[in-house]
Every structure is written in C-alpha cells, then in structure tokens.
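Example complex used in Figure S2.
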Amino acid sequence: MIEFRNVSKSYDDGTLAVSDLSLIAASHEITVLVGSSGCGKTTLLRMVNRLVTPTSGQVLIDDVDVADRNPVELRRSIGYVMQNSGLLPHRTTVDNIATVPVLQGTPAREARQRAVDLMETVGLDPSMARRYPWQLSGGQQQRVGVARGLAADPNILLMDEPFGAVDPIVRADLQRELLRIQGELGKTILFVTHDIAEAITLGDKIVIVATGGRIAQQGTPEEIMADPADDFVTSFLGLDEARALHVSGRLVVDPTGRPVGRLA
Amino acid sequence: MNFLVAAWEWLADPVNASGPSGWGARTVEHLWYTALATVIACLIGIPLGYAVGHSHRFRTFIVSSTGAARALPTLGVVTLFGLLLGIGLEAPMLAFVLLALPSVLAGAYAGVEGAPRDAVDAARAMGMTEWQILFRVEAPLGMPLLLGGIRSATLQVLATATLAAYVGAGGLGRFLFLGLKTQNYAMMLASSLVVVGLAIAVDLAFEIVDRLVRRSFPTGVGAAV
Ligand SMILES: Nc1ncnc2c1ncn2[C@@H]1O[C@H](COP(=O)(O)OP(=O)(O)O)[C@@H](O)[C@H]1O
Ligand SMILES: [Mg+2]
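Predicted assembly (489 residues):
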C-alpha cells in the first residue's frame, strides 16, 4: 500500500506542483493518476522512490515513511518505467533488463538468464536479446522498459506515461499485455497517463488530478463515469454537452455528425 | 627540393641518427615528454571534468578557465616558468600540461555532461549510486568525447614539445634550435619532418583506438555490465 499524506511540492523556482494531496493506492491494484500535462503527476510518482522530496507531508509504503529509508535501496526495490524507455544506450536488451539484479549482486549469468525469461513475459522475441536500444522499435523499447522494471521482482511498479510515445495500435497491445502480466503477478502499480481512455482501460482505481496537484475525483472507472464530481471532471472525461455522442443508425456520431465509432 | 634532399640525407646519416643525442634517441625523448604531459593532464583533467560534468556545477568556471588557458602563448609560459624554475624539464613540462589540460578537461566534461538525461535519470531511478551513475553510465557514454579531447591534447603537446629544448631540455626541438643557431637548415627541416611524421602516426593510432571503441560498443562506449 502506498499512502500520500498531505504532500505538497513547490520547486525552487516557486512552481507549486502538488498542494496538500492525500491518496492511498491499494496493494495489488493498478491506481492510475490521470490529468493534463504539467498537473504534477510525475512529481507525485517520483516522491514514492525519493527522486523528488516533498516540501511537506509524507509518502508511506506499508506504513513506513520513505524518508526513513535509504534512497538507493528503496529505488532498487521499486520498479520504474518511464516514457522514453530510459534504456541505457550502451547496453544490450538483456543487460538493460538485468541492471537492477546485477546492482543487487546477482551473478551476471543468472541475471541474464532471468532477463531472457522476462523478455518472453513481456512478449519480446529472444532474438532481440543482443540488440542495442537504438536497434529496437519504440514499442519494443517500451517492452524492454517494462521487463527491466519487473526484473528485481519488486512489489511496487511506478509507470510514468510508459506507452505515451507509441502509436495507438501498439499502445493497445501494450495495455493488454500489462493487464495480462498484472493478472499473473498482482503488483502494486502506480500508473501515470494524460489519456483518460488509457486510465479507464487499465485502472482498478482512477485518480483525476487537476492543475496544481489537486485531486479532482477518485474512484473506480465506473464510479467516475457514472457520477463526475464537477464540470472539470465532466469535461476531462469528454462527457460535456459539446462532445455528447448520439447513435445514428449503426454509427455513433459526435454533435457535428462526424462518426466516431460503430455499435457492435 | 634541395632542402628536402639535404634533410633526407641528414636523417639517413647514421652519425645523426644514432647515439644518445641522435635523432632516434631524441624522438623517443620527444614522445616521452608528450606522453608524460598528456598523462599528467589526464590525471588532473579527467577527475575534474567528471566532477563538473556529473554535478552540473561550476560549469562556467570550467568553460572560462579552459578558454583562458587556451589563450596562453606557450612559448611565453615556457619562458616564464624557465625563469622561475631554471633550466631543465620542469618548466616546459608544466607548460605542456597547461597546454594539454583544456582539451582533456573539455572532453571529460562534455562527455559526461552530454550523456542522455533520460538514461541518467533512469539509472538513478533504478537505484544506482552517484558513483555507479558516473562510472557505469556517464563515463562509458562520454568515452568518444573524452578520447577526442585526449587526442587533440596529445597532438598539441607533440607539436609544441620542441620548445622543451628552448630551456635546455631534450626532444626533437634540440635540432631546431641548434639548426637555427648554426644556420643548418637541413637539420631544422629534418627534425620538423620527424615531428610531422610523429603527429601523423599518433593521430592514426588514436583513429584506430577510436574505431575499436566504437565498433565493440555500437553507441561508441567503453564498458558493459
Ligand atoms: N525540477 C523542476 N523544477 C521546477 N519546476 C518543475 C520541475 N519539475 C516539474 N516542474 C513543474 O511542476 C509542474 C508539475 O510537473 P510534472 O510533475 O512533471 O507534471 P506532469 O507529469 O503532470 O506533466 C509543472 O508546472 C512543471 O513545470
Ligand atoms: Mg509527467
């Protein structure tokens, strides 16, 4: 369980990124933080592994304040997946995946073997093992990023817009795989996105963050869709009148009559 | 053409080539000065450049001081140190280190500072210590730039090491200054040609090392896990 207790963050230049936010992310669930760019999602995520120190308030993992933990050990115990994969350009796929286990002292051979197993888990062909990041497609790089996040078998996985830079088809694929993996592994996942559709697809619980790091609403996708708390949420969900959808024959159309979908 | 022939004959004459003050021995001496100055510059410049590149602090200090050091006229520095330290190797060696330092420092600094931010950030997020980030991520990724800095430092010192003879030390400069004094232009030209040949050979050696580094690590880096 990850708990944010009255956390605020103002950066040195005075930017107030998060203000007095409290939140609980339950164990073995995917909690999605969703909000527009610059609303403080990354800041929140990075408080969990101490890449960002809150100006006030606490972040607790299973009731232990992360501020009391050694940052290096803490980070090794938490998986981290970021948007542009952040792969080490001078290391092959297996060596990238094996990074944390090797840091923890796992013999290189063993760590590489496990890395190859993980490649299968995330749907990467074993022939990619010896490739360098720049020899992989964007989608493949993200798979390597996910495998790397899982390599040390962490309880917690932090994912910062991990599928934000790939095309919609690959993104849907990656989302499906993540749900499958989560079904097997049951990690505690904190997932950041600006895409409400992605949040609804992945989230056991969704937290809508408004500018300034304030929670606009939280709940299950069903709760939020059924009962948006205010105009901001309504508009963020795309449920406002201006975007209300209608059925026209077998097509679903927007208010201007443009088709946006089809009934099954 | 006459001068070239004369220079060639001077080089070919065993009397000029062999012995402790022949051009063979002077060449070895010249290379030794070059290597010593470059190594000392590396011992100072690499740690300093890495520290600044990793911490992203004191950057303007480095940039302005290397700029200033580059503007120093080496002959003036040799003379100044010669007056202070007397005849011998110390004065020119100090000047050569000063000459080599900016390039090494800039190479070390730029390589580490230029490592992709995403990769460094990910390394930190995965729980690498600052030392591990420096030596396992930034330094390997900065290797080509560092190598480039050492390369130009070496070549600069190699060309300038002739000035050692100006304050009584050895190296190929001996023949230049002797030839100047005795109007032996064949000797001057011959020793200049040796310096040029050395520079080409050393540059070629660096080129090979550079290619090896880039080939074994396709992103141009030095170390695996
Ligand atoms: N290191 C920093 N220094 C100053 N301001 C920052 C820093 N990081 C983020 N910010 C600012 O804090 C706000 C929240 O940023 P961030 O957490 O990255 O938002 P998000 O991930 O939701 O896009 C933004 O206004 C951003 O410009
Ligand atoms: Mg962000």
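The pocket of magnesium ion (ligand 2) is lined by residues A 41-42, 160 (CB under 6 Å). Chain A has a mean pLDDT of 94.
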